[in-house]
Sequence to fold (349 residues):
Amino acid sequence: MSGMYEVNYIAAASLGADPVTTETIATAFGLLHVLQVYTSTMMAIAVWDWLVCLKTEWDVIWRASWTPVKALYIFTRYWGLLAFGLNLWLFNANFTAEQCKSLHYIIVATCMWVTIGSEAILAMRTYAFLGRKLWTAILLGTMIVIEIGFMLYVAIAAIHQTVLPIVTRGPCTASDAPGKHVVSGFWLAPVAFDLICTFLTLWKVTTLQTRGSHLVKLFVTEGLFYFILVAGVNILNAIFMFQSNANIQNINSFLSLILSQVLCCRLVLNLRAQGRGGTVHTSETRPTLPAFAHPGRTEAETVNTVSIPLDRFSGKQQPWDDASYGEHEPAHGGVKVHVAVERDVESGH
Fold:
């Protein structure tokens, strides 16, 4: 793209403006081109991740029974791809300013649900890890409702059409209204939510006697990895919203949206795939948390059994991901529970 500046400058000079205005227009054209290439690249990453995960997704999602996490995964993955494709069209096609006056609302109105889907998956993980406590459900549910309300406000009232200089037709983009910084909250709200979920997870880890468990380590390290990456990009997005050039205020928006969608989907796939990795037997004298028992179908019917001492979890559900991970027999005297996980036979066999 070394010659793009010259091309943009020639195009700007053809409008017959003074040198200062011509330079401003050429810079705007260049930044717009960067936005188009950047968003197209991020869309390619989203599609690539979906394709490379398709086999695992078929095994651990589509062939599993329906649960809230399965529904959230499917919504986040496929609504995300649809929303990203729609926004890519808005960023690359040519629209009049009048057409974009209505279309620019689609940008936030579609992308906000990708963020909400990712946050809901994170909330389900946190809720399960903390033992499915009522107070956890109320806290996380309230935060998601507040976040939805704020994002709807941004989508309806705070988002502002970015008007291209001089030209009559061009891409349809949106950002903060001049002098306002409301849209930056669109990126900071998920940071606050993720921070609270991460804090609750780490707090729970400190109370566990089995924090060295492989699955606990997997759960925590992947959660921290997700938080650090997504929070960093969202904060970067919020910072960009405070600079004066409207052409690059939203330049990192696709990076943030696609990163959160891809990583959240990976969290679900990795945890479920890990749960298929064999049988775990624990001793009665040293409580350990159970490995995930995945409900996916296989060609032949097999049964995995896990003996789990419940000195600390008597009468309570295990603090793990969604309700699809097998059925638990009642504990007897708070000593031990026997978990039998049957893998379904593929329909038609």
User: Anything to note?
Assistant: Strands lie at 95-96, 159-162, 169-170, 173-176, 303-309, 327-328, 336-342. The longest helix spans residues 19-52. Residues 97 and 163 are 7 Å apart (CA to CA). The mean pLDDT is 74.
